[in-house]
Amino acid sequence: MATAASAAASGVEISTITLSPVPLTTRPPQAVAAPCSRSRQRVSASCAAASPAAPDSFSAPITSANSTVVLRFGSIPPETLAEKRRGGNPRRAASAYFVTRSDNQGQATISRNGRVTPAQRHASRWLASFAGALARRDIDAAAHLFEAGGYWRDLVAFTWNIKTCEGQAEIKAMLAATLSAAQPSNFELQGPAASSDGAIEGWFSFETAAGRGVGHLRLKGRKCWTLLTALQELKGYEERSGPTREAGVEPGVLVDRRSWLERRQEEAAELGATRQPYCVIVGGGQGGIALAARLKRLQVPTIVVERNARAGDSWRKRYRSLCLHDPVWYDHLPYIPFPEHWPVFSPKDKIGDWLEMYANVMELDYWSSTECTSAKWDEEADEWLVKVKKIDRVLTLRPKHLVLATGMSGFPSMPEIPGAGSFKGRLVHSSRHDGGAAWSGKNCVVLGSNNSAHDIAADLWEHGAEVTMIQRSPTVVVRSELLMELAWGQLYSEAAVRAGITTELADLTVASVPFRLLPALQKPIYDEIRRRDAELYEGLEKAGFLFDMGEDGSGLHSIYLRRGAGYYIDVGASQMVIDGRIKLKSKVGVDALKENSVLLSDGTELPADLIVCATGYGSMNEWAAQLISREAADRVGKCWGLGSGTKYDPGPWVGELRNMWKPTQVPALWFHGGNLMQSRHYSLYLALQLKARMEGIPTPVYYLEPVHHPT
Amino acid sequence: MATAASAAASGVEISTITLSPVPLTTRPPQAVAAPCSRSRQRVSASCAAASPAAPDSFSAPITSANSTVVLRFGSIPPETLAEKRRGGNPRRAASAYFVTRSDNQGQATISRNGRVTPAQRHASRWLASFAGALARRDIDAAAHLFEAGGYWRDLVAFTWNIKTCEGQAEIKAMLAATLSAAQPSNFELQGPAASSDGAIEGWFSFETAAGRGVGHLRLKGRKCWTLLTALQELKGYEERSGPTREAGVEPGVLVDRRSWLERRQEEAAELGATRQPYCVIVGGGQGGIALAARLKRLQVPTIVVERNARAGDSWRKRYRSLCLHDPVWYDHLPYIPFPEHWPVFSPKDKIGDWLEMYANVMELDYWSSTECTSAKWDEEADEWLVKVKKIDRVLTLRPKHLVLATGMSGFPSMPEIPGAGSFKGRLVHSSRHDGGAAWSGKNCVVLGSNNSAHDIAADLWEHGAEVTMIQRSPTVVVRSELLMELAWGQLYSEAAVRAGITTELADLTVASVPFRLLPALQKPIYDEIRRRDAELYEGLEKAGFLFDMGEDGSGLHSIYLRRGAGYYIDVGASQMVIDGRIKLKSKVGVDALKENSVLLSDGTELPADLIVCATGYGSMNEWAAQLISREAADRVGKCWGLGSGTKYDPGPWVGELRNMWKPTQVPALWFHGGNLMQSRHYSLYLALQLKARMEGIPTPVYYLEPVHHPT
Question: Do the interacting molecules here have an ipTM over 0.85?
Answer without folding.
Answer: no
